[in-house]
Structures are given as C-alpha cells and as structure tokens.
Amino acid sequence: MTMKKKHKNHGNTFHKISMLEQNTADVMALGGQEMIQKQHDLGKLTARERLDALFDAGSFNEVQLFVKHRSHLFGLEGKTIHADGVITGYGKVGGRIVFVAAQDFTSSGGSLGEMHAKKIWKVMDMAFEARKPFIALNDSGGARIQEGVPALDGYGGIFYRNTRASGYIPQITAIMGPTAGGAVYSPALTDWVFMVQNTSYMYITGPDVIKSIIGEEISHEDLGGPLIHSSKNGVCHFSTSNDQDCIKKIQALLSYLPDSCHSPVPILDLGDDPDRIAPELDEIIPNEPSKSYDMKEIIKCIADGGQYFEPHAAWAHNIIVCFIRVMGQTVGVIANNPKYYAGVLDVHASDKAARFIRFCDAFNIPLLTLADVPGYMPGSRQEQLGIISHGAKLLHAYAEATVPKITVVIRKDYGGAYIAMCSKQLGADYVMAWPSAEIAVLGSEAACNIVYRKEIMTAADPQAKRIELAKAYEDHFSNPYFSAGLGIIDEIILPRDTRRKIISLLETLQNKSHAAIAKKHNNIPL
Of 167, 181, 306, 328, which residue is the catalytic one? Predict the structure, then answer.
C-alpha cells in the first residue's frame, strides 16, 4: 500500500515537472518564429539572443518569467504576450553580477504595460539593493495604448528608480530599436546611452505626428537616429554598427566601472611598465603657437597599453572625455583638443565635460585634466545659447568633485578657461606644467591691444610697436615659470615623464578624504 502511494506521488511530480518545462518552453519562444524572423530581417537580434551575447555563458538567471498582463480592454483579454514583452534578470558579465531588462519586440512590439513595467521595477530594485549595475536593452513600440494610464504610471516608476539610483549604481541603456515618447526619458536619466546604426531611433514625437501638426516632413533617422544624437546633441554616448558591436562596447565600458559608489574601482593590469617614458612627447608640441596637434596622442602615451575608451567621440570634438587605465586603475580624462577649434570651450564642450566629471566623481574615479585651451568661444551665437550658465556647469562639476584631481598644463591656458580646466583654486590637488605651458589672462596680441593700447596708437609704426610689445608680453607669460613662482603650478615636468609623474601622484592621493558639508544637495546651474 505504501509502495503504491509513493509510486503515484512520483508520477504526479513528474507530470508537474513536465508541465513546468513545457510552460517555460512556451514562454521562452518569444513572439513565435514568424516574428523572430522579422526581427532578424530588420538586422536585429532577439532579446534572448542579446542576453546570450551580453552575459557569461550559462550565468543568466531570469526573474518573473511567467508574469502576464491583466488588462481586459480593447481585445487584450484574449491576447497572450509572452513574459509581457520584457525579459528581466541578472547574471555575470566578465565575472561580475549585472542586472538587466531586455524588451522583446517580437512580443506585441515590446510595448510597455503595467506588468511589463513592474518587472523592470523589480530588477531595478534588486540592482539597487544589491549595489550592482543595471542595464536596459530598449526595443519597444512605446506605451501599450490599450492599457491606458497604468502604462504611463509604469514609466513614472522607472523614472523614479532611475533618479534614485543615479550616482549610486552605474546605469546603462542600449537603444536597439524604436524608442519614442515617454520611453526616451529613462535613457536620458541613465549614465550611458548606446544606439545602433540603421535600426534604432529615439524622439519625443514621431515623423507622422510632426507632419500632421506643423507640416514638417522628416525621416526617423534625421529626426532621432544615432547620427543625430551622437554628433549633434550628445544624447547618445556611443553609436555602434550593429547589435553585436553594441553589446561588446557595453562589456568594455563595464570593465572600467565599479559595481556601485561603495565598491572599489576595478583593476585590470595590462602589463605596462610604471617606469616607461615617452620621449615622443618632447616633440609633439609644434613650434608655432597657432599650429595644432592631436591631444589623443598624448592620452595614448599616458594610458596603459595606449588604450582609451571614449564616450561622445563624435560630439564636441574640441574637448575629449575618456576612460584610461594607469597601472590597471581606471582614470577619467578631460582634455582640450587643439585639433578642433583650437580646443576652445563652448556650450557643448562644457556640458560634455561637466557630465563626465560628475559621473567619475560619483563613482570614485580619479580625474586627469590635460589643458590646452585659448579660452571660451566668443560670439553672439554662444551668448544666445547660454555659454555663461553652460560654462558654469563645468566650474561647478570640478569644484564639487572630491576624487583625486590632477591637472597637466600642456600649452595654452588662458582666461576663464584656465580656471575652468581644473585650476588650483578650483580644487586641483596637484598641477603640473610642461615647459611649453602658457598661463595668462589673454593671448599676447589680445592682451597688448588692451594693456598697451595708448603706446600702440601713438607709435610712429603701430604694427611694429604691437609686435614688439607682444614679444615682451610673451617673454613674461609664455612659459610656466611666472605661475610656478606664485605656487599656481606645483611642478614643471619634462613631457616624457608625464606618465611616471601621474602614476606617482595617483598612488600618493589614493586615500584622499573629504569632509562633506552638511546640506541636502548642490544646486548645479542646469
């Protein structure tokens, strides 16, 4: 009797296990083979294929696989949307735990409804509590209109969590398909935005609505494609060639970032020599002050293995922001690039640098500033765009940052831009200068036109007098010794020794501490 009962129970258990396996297989099938093929025909991977590419093999754990929508409006009562159109969970990327939400365009267009959003809330909350990075792989037609306001509430809950997690855990968004309306705000609230060329776009209002309201005809690409967002407005940090390239770049970015603001910055030893010198740097600065060079060549000489990882590579070329490793440690670099507009600071450059500085400071990544800047961009266009408030963002970001801050003055460092590029009084811990450094209020010609105006105007040969006086001004300021004499420069170094000096300083400043003032938060000039 006992044996028969036991055998019967085993049969019942096997049946339930079989049921689970079948139900799991059904949901894992996404929107069906036809929809999967359409996704592939568009040049896109499915949500599950993307997760397979992102995570270390066999490490992904799905959360809330069997969640279903519960709407009975506009025909939804009889509609099955597998996993409610989003795959959520966690796993390991490069051996480190990461949480993810990947929208499934094959299932009802990846539209966001009440339960879809709650699945995303769940893993965002888990990431926050676990102090681990969160990644969103967006591929969605937007809010599920049939569900109405609950869908909008879903977005609101995501925005709230994005904001709460800001500066606490790294947040990354990959736009891997359409993203429109309210869906675009979550990416903008995260730290890093990736887009995929030819298959992704993001905008508040689509081309059809724009045409009907204001009569403007424009394509999806010209309105909100990767080219626009990566080169015109900086909404997108990385424009990638396809889904696989996008995922590889996400993995690369993660390798530079800590798990949270309370976690150590990762160390990845590339085997570079701490005593390596770079004699080529002694010859990189042109003899003529008006000639340019590529600042990226200097960055490569400083970085381990010559490697750097650059966000915003296509936007505001006059300033560079990038991650490098120095003896394995992640360092954030901000550098003027004289190759573009002489490295001048403008509205976009200020925004680009300020945002990067604040991210690095939030996650305890030391800052290295390489200054070669003739000033802020003059002209009515910049004033109308608000260069004053945008430039103030850069000042605020540097002054607010408490991580180790090292500045190297490469060549020109003039006026308000000298202050803005992490000067001593803006909080730099250590300021070094190359022998080619020039620190002054203005360039020699502009300064002479003001300081020696009377002498020039009354001279028999005004042009010759201007040249003579400009030479005298240059002799006084076109070197780092005047500033070093005032303690504004801590050390004048040989260019070839720049890397070795930075290594020494990073080791010296690694335990830098800062006593915070008791207040709610700063009010950055947004």
Answer: 181
- 399-420 residues labelled b (16+ CB within 10 A) or e (exposed): eebebbbbbbbbbbbbbebbbb
Identify whether the C-beta of residue 480 lies closer than 8 Å to the C-beta of residue 440. Answer: no
φ, ψ for residue 416, nearest 5 deg: -60, -30
| Cβ neighbours of 522 (radius 10 Å) | 12
Is 417 among the residues known to form the active site? Answer: yes
For residue 206, give every residue at least 6 positions away whose Cβ sits within 8 Å of its Cβ, in sequence order, or none: 180, 220, 223
Options 206, 306, 328, 416, the catalytic residue: 416
Catalytic residue among 101, 117, 180, 417: 417
Show pLDDT as tens, one digit a residue, over the chain (526 residues). 445 555 556 678 877 888 777 777 777 677 788 889 999 999 999 999 999 999 999 999 999 886 776 666 555 676 666 778 899 999 999 999 999 999 988 878 888 888 899 999 999 999 999 999 999 999 988 777 666 688 788 899 999 999 999 999 999 999 999 888 888 999 999 999 999 999 999 998 889 889 899 989 999 999 999 999 999 999 999 999 999 999 999 999 999 999 999 999 999 999 999 999 999 999 999 988 889 999 999 999 999 999 999 999 999 999 999 999 999 999 999 999 999 999 999 999 999 999 999 999 999 999 999 999 999 998 999 999 999 999 999 999 999 999 999 999 999 999 899 999 999 999 999 999 999 999 987 766 676 677 767 777 777 777 777 777 777 777 777 789 989 999 999 999 999 999 999 999 999 999 998 888 889 999 999 8
Catalytic residue among 182, 225, 332, 443: 182
Annotation says 379 is catalytic: no
CA 504 to CA 488: how far, in whole Å? 20
Strand 308-309, strand 319-326: pairing: antiparallel
The answer for residues whose C-beta is within 8 angstroms of residue 310's C-beta and 6 or more apart is: 320, 321, 322, 323
**CB of 169 closer than 8 Å to CB of 131:** yes
CA distance 416 to 411: 15
Contact (CB, 8 A) for 489 and 437: yes
Question: For residue 411, what is the enclosing H or E element?
Answer: strand 405-414
Euclidean distance between CA atoms 290 and 284, whole angstroms: 14
Q: Which residues of 247-271 are buried (b: 16+ CB within 10 A; e: fewer)?
A: bebbbebbbbbbbbeebebbeeeee
Residue 181 among the catalytic residues:
yes
Yes or no: say if 403 and 427 are a contact pair by the CB < 8 Å rule: no
Q: Which of 205, 199, 190, 183 is nearest to 235 (CA)?
A: 190
Whether 182 sits among the annotated catalytic residues: the reply is: yes
